[in-house]
Amino acid sequence: MRALRYQRASQDKKEQGKSVHDQGKLNVKEINAHGWTDAGSFTDNDRSASRHATKEREKFELLIEAIRKGKGDVLVIWEMSRKERDLAVYVQIRDMCHEVGLFFWLVGGVLFDLRDKNDRMMLGFQAVQAEWMADSIRDNVLRGIVGAAEAGRPHGTVTYGYRRIYHQRTKALERQEPDIEIRQTTAEDGTVTEYTHAGVVREIFEKVSGGTPLITIEQSLNASGIPSPRGARWLRGIIRKIAMNPAYIGKRVFRGEVVGDGIWPALVDEEVFWASVRLLEDPSRTTTRAGRAVHLLSYIVLCGVCGGPISSSNVSRHGWSGRVYSCLKKRCAAVKAEFLDEYVQRVVVAWLARPEVFEDLSSGVGDEQVSHARAEAERLRADLEDYKKLAESGEVKAIDFVRISKGLERQIAEHDARAAEAGIPPVLRGRIGPQAVTAWAELGDEVGVKREIIRTVADIKLLPARHKGDRSPFGAHRLEWTWKFGPESEDSTAG
Ligand SMILES: [Zn+2]
User: Fold this and answer.
1) Ligand 1 mean position to 456 CA, how many Å?
2) What is the pLDDT of residues 5-38, one digit of tens each?
3) Which CATH superfamily is domain 2-148 in?
4) Ligand 1 centroid to residue 307 C-alpha, Å
5) Which of the 8 DSSP states describes residue 286?
6) Cβ(298)–Cβ(311) under 8 Å?
7) What's the whole-number mean pLDDT along residues 435-450?
8) So what's the pLDDT on residue 12?
């Protein structure tokens, strides 16, 4: 008797079953016990036989071929579900075996004769049962994922910046929290940097929301030697993905959609998150396609007559050629682009530089984030005081105190900064008050960030010239200007 044996392992870790190695050993033992010849062994590792499986099972196909060619007299498998769960395939193989004269199946040590109607019934029953098992497992796995998503529990890989805490004994997930473990890395130039995963995420958001280009963030992370989430170098795509992941404001995402609140805390404020998303989605920040230059005010300034957008175009007439902004839909109003660009920037920068604006935005009265950040800074200050006392009394070694206090002071500074800036829209941080003029100049041709700043602070509408051939210089009379916040937001232009 020539025996063909087949072993298969499922990729489903939750499924109980013997490994392919164990199945192989058991099958060989059976073959030897019966005094058969081992005519061929076929093993599929990490394959699922269920009809929902997506991978090809190559060795299984070879087994079928061997059966078809009449290379065996008995088929040896450890259990039905290990061979083939799909009922239709089972029937096909059974009939094929019968046809070629392979009448014996040894399943889990029990010999079946395909010519015997009772044996056929028992095998058929096992196949039905195996299919039912496969379907149930699949249902349970799916229900588990959907259930976890609906309950706001995390599943899958841990989002970078967080860590999961499991119950020591039951291993059940207790919570997901910011990963604030202090890590150390050495850059190529020997500089040592201390960082936390949560800190890296916050820094990415602060920079992106402040308009720092992704390439600059990529370069600075790689220069510091901090490994990417996958442990390799940072790429713009990774940073972009992080800066647009709603998990960082505590939202549960399932199959690309926000399905509700997660059970974990946010790592960044919603304001910073949405500012990042807005900046990354601004078409002016994506690659400039040929023939479609990005202009400072197109689609930001609106037409004062019809309310439609103003777009930029090149014109050439009456011996003059250059760029103009004009009402896109009906041409109600138009202006030389350099006039509008220059005027709007001058007014915006002057406004950003005003001490009242800085004061007004910095006060952030009643802001929950502000009070939280202040409270956190206070708590850390108290901790620091405690450590000082312990260090003085010798309960904490001086060297440890230096290390601890450094860390605490840095955290306090962070919280203080957050408290001071929480009332300021992310894109304006570090760009208002006394820093306004320099900061604007430093932006250079970062048109996307300038656009975001202008869009954040003002609603601007372009009015038509009073009459044809109006020679009065371009100025406030050609614009309807509303500040979105700040002192005297009803106040019109300052220029
Ligand atoms: Zn118009």
Assistant:
1) 22
2) 988 765 444 444 567 777 888 888 889 988 999 9
3) Resolvase, N-terminal catalytic domain (3.40.50.1390)
4) 6
5) S
6) yes
7) 87
8) 46
**480 is written with which tokens?**
């309807």
Q: How far is the CA of 462 from the centre of ligand 1 (A)?
A: 9
Give me the pLDDT at residue 481, please. 94
495 CA distance to ligand 1 centroid (A)? Answer: 24
Measured in angstroms, how far is the CA atom of residue 471 from the centroid of ligand 1?
A: 21
Cα(308) to centroid(ligand 1), Å? 5
Name which of 47, 64, 203 is nearest 134 in CA terms.
47
Q: What is the DSSP string of 287-342?
A: ---TT----SSTTTSEETTT-PBEEEEEEEETTEEEEEEEETTT---EEEHHHHHH
Convert the pLDDT of each residue in 114-146 to its tens digit.
999 888 888 888 888 777 777 766 666 666 666
Topology of domain 178-281 in CATH is: Hect, E3 ligase catalytic domain fold (3.90.1750)
Ligand 1 centroid–CA 326 distance in Å is 8
Whole-number pLDDT of residue 478: 93
**Ligand 1 centroid – CA 476 distance (Å):** 18
302 Cα: distance to centroid of ligand 1 (angstroms):
8
Calculate how far, in angstroms, residue 457's C-alpha sits from the geometric centre of ligand 1: 22
Query: Ligand 1 mean position to 435 CA, how many Å?
Result: 36
The proportion of the chain whose per-residue pLDDT surpasses 70, expressed as a percent, equals 80
Q: Could you please report the per-residue DSSP string of 119-146?
A: HHHHHHHHHHHHHHHHHHHHHHHHHHHH
Going from the Cα of 455 to the center of ligand 1, the distance in angstroms, rounded, reads: 19
Is pTM beyond 0.90? Reply is: no
Q: Measured between alpha carbons, how far is 246 from 147 in angstroms, rounded to an integer?
A: 19
* Secondary structure (3-state) at 430: coil
